[in-house]
Amino acid sequence: MAVPSPVSTEPCPEDWPYLDQAVLQASRSRQVCMTCHWFRHHAGASCIPLLTCQLHRGLITHGEHLTRRCLGWTDEMVRQRGWAPEGA
Predict the structure, then answer these.
(1) I need a labelling partner for 36 at 20 to 30 A (CA). Which of 8, 29, 65, 71 fits?
(2) Which domain holds residue 19?
(3) Is residue 74 part of a domain?
(4) pLDDT tens across 27-51, in order?
């Protein structure tokens, strides 16, 4: 008997809207989407990468992850706490 796979209640990132200029602002520092704790990338249809912001549940246009950020930007946990802080 086949075991049913769990159904995710999370919406697929492909269904998220793109973030616009009201959310993303230009940045000339290392504080850009790509260095943010909330930044993720997923394999979309035909294995085309989707750049996402988990905080705003939105897609980021290719290239903007290198030059923009939002007001919710936070440093990656690895940089904040160091590698494997639970082992300390």
Answers:
(1) 8
(2) 13-82
(3) yes
(4) 999 999 999 999 999 988 888 899 9
